[in-house]
Structures are given as structure tokens and as C-alpha cells.
Specification:
Length: 97
């Protein structure tokens, strides 16, 4: 990482059913969400689909398509084992742990 780059950490909390409970401003900035996008109660799969539809996440680089990306990310969230890498359209990669 050079001096011009910085690491952006974000925090998001979902309930046991996958509904958004709370998130910080960095989460909104990282994914370019509006306040309406991250209203409490929105399911994480809706946000995942929004990421792909808006071109923020590029599932084709690591997955076979949108549904594969959402399915594998959902499985990761259920198990919470290891980490999950999402490739952003701008070339950055997000490591979800």
C-alpha cells in the first residue's frame, strides 16, 4: 500500500434472519449506498443484488454470475468461516471477515 492509499474498515450488523440492524458510515461509503438503501430491515441479499445491478461488485471475476455470487456470499454469512472476497468494479477487493 502506498502513502496515498488507505484501508477503509466498515461495520454492519444483521439479525439472525439477515435483516439489517445497523451499519456505520464507512459501510455506506464503501458501497455507495443511499440512506434509503440501508434502511433497517433490508435483507442482505437485497443489498448484494443492488451491488451487482449498480456495477459496484463484479461477480464475473470470481463467480459464474450474479446468482452464484449471492448464493456463495449467503452461504459464507450463514457459516461465518474463513473470509469472503468481493471484487469492486474499480479494482479494489473487499475482504469480508
Amino acid at each position: 500500500m502506498n502513502d496515498g492509499e488507505k484501508t477503509l474498515e466498515a461495520c454492519v450488523i444483521y439479525d439472525e434472519n439477515g435483516a439489517l440492524v445497523a451499519c456505520d458510515e464507512n459501510f455506506r461509503i464503501l458501497y455507495d449506498y443511499s440512506q434509503e438503501d440501508i434502511a433497517p430491515g433490508v435483507h442482505f441479499t437485497e443489498l448484494d443484488r443492488l451491488d451487482v445491478e449498480r456495477g459496484i461488485v463484479v461477480p464475473g471475476r470470481n463467480f459464474s454470475g450474479t446468482e452464484d455470487y449471492i448464493e456463495k456470499k449467503t452461504n459464507y454469512r450463514r457459516k461465518l468461516e474463513g473470509s469472503f472476497i468481493a471484487q469492486l468494479a474499480d479494482g479494489r477487493a473487499i475482504k469480508i471477515t
